[in-house]
C-alpha cells in the first residue's frame, strides 16, 4: 500500500502453499481531535510522574517494575525482562488451520481489522488463488500467529482485491450475553404497536453506506474548539426525552405519520428535478449562432 507502512510482515500458509503478506491498519483514530492536559493557572502542559503510593516520592523509570496483586496491597514482583521472555517466538506465519462459513463468527468477538496485501509479485498468484477460492466458497479462514507481542487468533476474509484480517477476542474476554440481559423483563409486543414499529423500520430500510454517517462527537468537539478560539459561548446540546410506556403507541403513530409525509416530500422533489432543471436552462441566454462565412 503506497504511502503506508506495514504493521507486520510475514506469510500466509494454507496447506503446502505460502505467500508473503503485509498487514496494514484498516481503521485509524489519527484524525480525531486530541487534547493535552494543561496546568490551568499557567496554561502549560503537564508531565506524568509515577509516585510511590505510600511515600509520595517520585519513582524513576529504572526503579519501576511489574507486579501482580495476590491480595489487598500484597504483590508478587515480576521483572519486565521476565514478562518479555514469556512472549512466544514468532515464525511470522499466519497458518490457516480451518475454513468456516463467513457467518459462523459472532461479531461480538471482532477486535481490530487489518488489510492483508501480498508483499511482492511472486506472492501475488498464491494470494489471489486463496482470495478467489475463499470468495467463491463463501468461507473465512481462521489462523493464529504472534502479533504485537501476543498470540492472536485472526479471522481472514476476502475483501475486494485483497483480504481482511480481523483479530478476534478470546472466549474468556467476551462477557456472557445471558448475564447482560438477565434483568430484561419478558415482554411480548403485538398488534398495532408492533405493526407501527415494523412500518418505521421498512420506511427507513436502506443499504449500508458508511460515508453517510458523520462523527457527531468529533464535529461537536471541533465546534467547541472553534467557539473557544473565537471567544463565543460553548454550544449546548438538546436533551432527549425517553418515550414512556403510556406514550409509546402515540409516539409510534406520530413517527409513522412523519415518515410518510417525508417520503411523499422526497418523491415530489425527485419528480420535480427534471422540470426545475429545464426551467433553469430556459432562463439562460441562448448561445449566439455563428454566421456562415
UniProtKB/TrEMBL annotation:
Alphabetical list of Pfam families matching this protein: Ku
SUPFAM superfamilies: SPOC domain-like
InterPro entries cross-referenced by the UniProt entry: DNA_bd_Ku70/Ku80, Prok_Ku, SPOC-like_C_dom_sf
SMART domains documented for this protein: Ku78
Keywords, ordered alphabetically: DNA damage, DNA recombination, DNA repair, DNA-binding
Keyword check for DNA damage: yes
Composition skew (Low complexity), residue ranges: 284-293
Disordered: annotated segments: 259-293
Annotated Ku domain residues: 56-186
Subunit structure as annotated in this protein's UniProt entry: Homodimer. Interacts with LigD.
Cited function: With LigD forms a non-homologous end joining (NHEJ) DNA repair enzyme, which repairs dsDNA breaks with reduced fidelity. Binds linear dsDNA with 5'- and 3'- overhangs but not closed circular dsDNA nor ssDNA. Recruits and stimulates the ligase activity of LigD.
Classification via PANTHER family: NON-HOMOLOGOUS END JOINING PROTEIN KU (PTHR41251:SF1)
Family classification: Belongs to the prokaryotic Ku family.
Protein name: Non-homologous end joining protein Ku
Amino acid at each position: 500500500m503506497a504511502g503506508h507502512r506495514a504493521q507486520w510482515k510475514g506469510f500466509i500458509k494454507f496447506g503446502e502453499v505460502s505467500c508473503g503478506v503485509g498487514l496494514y491498519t484498516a481503521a485509524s483514530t489519527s484524525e480525531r481531535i486530541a487534547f493535552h492536559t494543561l496546568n490551568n493557572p499557567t496554561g502549560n502542559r503537564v508531565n506524568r510522574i509515577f509516585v510511590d503510593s505510600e511515600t509520595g516520592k517520585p519513582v524513576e523509570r529504572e526503579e519501576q517494575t511489574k507486579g501482580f496483586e495476590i491480595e489487598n496491597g500484597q504483590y508478587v514482583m515480576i521483572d519486565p525482562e521476565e514478562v518479555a521472555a514469556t512472549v512466544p517466538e514468532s515464525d511470522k506465519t499466519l497458518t490457516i488451520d480451518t475454513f468456516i462459513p463467513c457467518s459462523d463468527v459472532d461479531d461480538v468477538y471482532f477486535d481490530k481489522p487489518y488489510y492483508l496485501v501480498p508483499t511482492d509479485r511472486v506472492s501475488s498468484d498464491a494470494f489471489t488463488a486463496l482470495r478467489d477460492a475463499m470468495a467463491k466458497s463463501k468461507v473465512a479462514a481462521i489462523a493464529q500467529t504472534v502479533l504485537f507481542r501476543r498470540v492472536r487468533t485472526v479471522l481472514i476474509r476476502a475483501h475486494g482485491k485483497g483480504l481482511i484480517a480481523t483479530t478476534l477476542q478470546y472466549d474468556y474476554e467476551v462477557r456472557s450475553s445471558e448475564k447482560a440481559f438477565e434483568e430484561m423483563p419478558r415482554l411480548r409486543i403485538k398488534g398495532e404497536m408492533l405493526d407501527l414499529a415494523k412500518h418505521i423500520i421498512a420506511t427507513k430500510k436502506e443499504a449500508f453506506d458508511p460515508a453517510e454517517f458523520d462523527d457527531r462527537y468529533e464535529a461537536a468537539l471541533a465546534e467547541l474548539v472553534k467557539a473557544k478560539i473565537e471567544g463565543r459561548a460553548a454550544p449546548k446540546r438538546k436533551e432527549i426525552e425517553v418515550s414512556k410506556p403510556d406514550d409509546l403507541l402515540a409516539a409510534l403513530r406520530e413517527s409513522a405519520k412523519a415518515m410518510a409525509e417525508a417520503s411523499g416530500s422526497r418523491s415530489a422533489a425527485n419528480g420535480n428535478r427534471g422540470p426545475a432543471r429545464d426551467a433553469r436552462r430556459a432562463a439562460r441566454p441562448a448561445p449566439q449562432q455563428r454566421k456562415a462565412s
